[in-house]
Amino acid sequence: MELTKRLEWRGRQIAWGRAGAGPAVVFCHGTPFSSLLWRPFAQALSRDFTVHLWDMPGYGRSSKQEGHPVDFGVQADAFAALLAHWGLERPHVIAHDFGGAVSLRTHLNLGVDYASLMLVDVVAIPPSGSPFFRFVQDHPNVLGKLPGYIHTAIVRAYIQGASHRGLRDEDLDALVQPWTGQDGQSAFYRQIADYDERFLQENEQQLGRLDIPVRIVWGARDAWISPDVARRLQSLIPAAELSLIDDAGHLVHHDAPVPLMDEIRTWLPSG
To answer: Rounded distance, CA 219 to CA 248, Å?
Structure first.
């Protein structure tokens, strides 16, 4: 399932793809990832659903121009525009990491309705950010000028740390590739520099208003965002369900793909 289509939006190009037939399911990725994480799941679901993948501006195959903000607010606006472009009124939304905050803001602040929302190891409420993340925020311009081979080694180590079981070389290469080269390296540090926890605070204050079905799925060994955050998130969302996946870290897609797919299949409507 390739992202062969482009939406021109506010001077940006948003890469997206669609496949299958049936109820609409939209996947949202996080940082520092892309829709690549969701591709196998989307392909498998396309037999029964119309699945949609997209790369947020500044990520993956979407444009990465310097000077274009990539914060939560911009991404929520982009998501709303994309859903309107697709003509989707109440899709099922499945979000990971940063995509959780984006999908929540799109619903809570922009009034875009969903049929349901699944939140997988999401960035959604404060506090957030690893020591590395905060270091980058303090030195974005310096790190953007690192020699390419050093930058690539840093990104590889960073992404590898999101997996509890460890990533295969070919999977790690695919996740790192969008952040290599001059444009990719600059974009990697820019998206961290643009990270603003204020949007998470706004989300947290509004979670009690959620009146759609919400399921929270979390890797029980997530070293990036503790399962304690998942429990607190569940307590803030009325009637939210929570499921922890054993022996999986933040990249549950690679650590436990079968249990994750089972969670998705069980959550989505049948027939």
So the answer is: 5
Strand 116-122 and strand 50-54: pairing?
A: unpaired
What's the number of CA atoms in the CB half-sphere (13 Å) around residue 221?
14
pLDDT, one tens digit per residue, over 28-81 is 999 999 999 999 999 999 999 999 999 999 999 999 998 899 999 999 999 999
Residue with tokens 């948003």: 14
Q: Which of 195, 248, 247, 172 is nearest to 70 (CA)?
A: 195
Residue 91, in any domain of the structure:
yes
Tokens coding 247: 């022996």
The dihedral region occupied by 11, where left means phi > 0, alpha psi between -120 and 50, and beta the remainder, is: left
How far is 127 from 152, CA to CA, in rounded Å? 27
Residues 88 and 95: their CA atoms lie apart, in Å, by 17
Give residue 113's domain range: 5-127+197-267
Residue 223 lies in a domain: yes
99 occurs within a structural domain: yes
Give the DSSP letter of residue 89: S
Residue 248 lies in a domain: yes
Can you give the CATH number for the domain in which 238 is found?
3.40.50.1820
